[in-house]
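can u do me a favor
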């Protein structure tokens, strides 16, 4: 870990400068040598970094949803070119380019804050070894070494021995209890964040390998952080626990206000919106207006939660408008397949013929749309004798074959 941290030594000076500035502010309140001053300085560093990473977080959300939507198409490409890996890669890149999706965008927040994480680790390791680093001089180094967070020194680790605790003037039991609690909290927050993403913010109507990968990561990441956490100093654990809590809160905010279409969170959001709109008779906020506008633009492509939302407004005699508002009027009735009632006249099916009609070759009579007079039509037809007509009618009813009939025997005439 020290070797990796040394690769990011170029950013050590800016990170140490930010920590010193926050320490100066908190030191005036709690005292310069207290754990509160140094601990809150690390927490403030995390908050500052995460605020700067908000645009990347928004890009990550869009990329993740784009990847979820592309999973069916990607699966088709993999099955079509399963024996040609080069063609498969070319088609994948073409699909990414056409849809404007970048698979690496979902990793941008983690990659962007990695240099700050290793730079902080390098700073705390230098403090533990008694070396000045960045803008931290000898006086600040001595202050940091004396700082304790709930009895655990800022630079102590879970794997440190009792001999290491002598130079920190701390108890090994206190250090291991505090670090163990922080490691458990760090892993639990990571697991909960991933779990709420899988259970609430995933389109349940599409089953893709992407969901299986996310489910595996939900269990792999907490275990990985628990194993790595025993080698982290207390200050780094404070950093990582703070960033996990920030990610969890940020994820909850996104799920509550801008969930993935087709997910459980979207159904809950539309249910809350429906109650609010029906109660007040109008759309009250810009966010709700944007949601209603998107639903109105989808038309027949609405998912089940969106159709339920439209039907709920229809029961209150409210209809969604293209501009994102609602208006009083006749409810929009949807058919079983999602088509609306005003999608056009239904096609009339021809009447089914009876067996006698099929055998006699009678053409089906078209359905009349208006009353027509039949008397002139009957008057133009030549009158025939009653017996042959009745005989042909009896033939049609009895189901006799068409064609020329055998002449009767002379004795029966």
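np, heres the sequence
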């Amino acid at each position: 870990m020290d070797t990796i941290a040394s690769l990011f030594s170029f950013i050590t000076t800016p990170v140490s400068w930010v920590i010193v500035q926050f320490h100066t502010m908190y030191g005036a309140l709690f005292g310069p040598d207290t754990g509160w001053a140094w601990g809150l300085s690390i927490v403030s560093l995390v908050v500052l970094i995460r605020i700067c990473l908000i645009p990347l977080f928004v890009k990550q959300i869009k990329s993740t949803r784009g990847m979820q939507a592309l999973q069916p198409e990607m699966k088709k490409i993999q099955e079509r070119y399963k024996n040609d890996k080069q063609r498969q890669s070319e088609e994948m890149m073409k699909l990414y380019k056409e849809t404007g999706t970048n698979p690496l965008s979902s990793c941008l927040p983690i990659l962007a804050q990695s240099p700050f994480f290793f730079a902080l680790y390098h700073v705390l390791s230098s403090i533990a070894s008694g070396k000045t680093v960045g803008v931290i001089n000898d006086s600040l180094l001595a202050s940091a070494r004396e700082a304790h967070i709930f009895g655990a020194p800022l630079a102590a680790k879970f794997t440190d021995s009792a001999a290491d605790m002598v130079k920190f003037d701390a108890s090994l039991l206190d250090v291991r209890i505090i670090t163990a609690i922080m490691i458990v909290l760090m892993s639990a927050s990571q697991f909960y964040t991933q779990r709420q993403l899988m259970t609430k913010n995933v389109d349940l109507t599409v089953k893709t390998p992407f969901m299986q990968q996310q489910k595996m990561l939900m269990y792999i990441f907490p275990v990985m952080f628990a194993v790595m956490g025993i080698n982290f100093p207390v200050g780094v654990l404070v950093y990582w626990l703070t960033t996990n809590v920030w990610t969890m809160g940020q994820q909850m905010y996104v799920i509550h206000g801008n969930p993935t279409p087709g997910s459980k969170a979207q159904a809950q959001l539309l249910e809350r919106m429906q109650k609010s709109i029906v109660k007040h008779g109008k759309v009250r906020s810009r966010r709700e207006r944007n949601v209603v506008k998107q639903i109105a633009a989808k038309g027949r492509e609405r998912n089940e939660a969106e159709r339920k939302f439209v039907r709920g407004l229809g029961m209150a005699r409210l209809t969604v408008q293209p501009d994102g508002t609602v208006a009083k009027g006749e409810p929009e009735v949807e058919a079983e397949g999602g088509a609306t009632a005003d999608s056009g006249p239904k096609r009339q099916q021809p009447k089914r013929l009876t067996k006698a009609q099929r055998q006699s070759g009678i053409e089906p009579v078209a359905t009349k749309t208006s009353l027509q007079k039949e008397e002139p039509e009957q008057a133009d037809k030549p009158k025939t004798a009653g017996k042959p007509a009745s005989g042909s009618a009896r033939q049609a009813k009895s189901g006799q074959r068409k064609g020329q009939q055998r002449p009767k025997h002379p004795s029966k005439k």
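Strands lie at 148-149, 152-153, 318-320, 326-328. hope that helps!!
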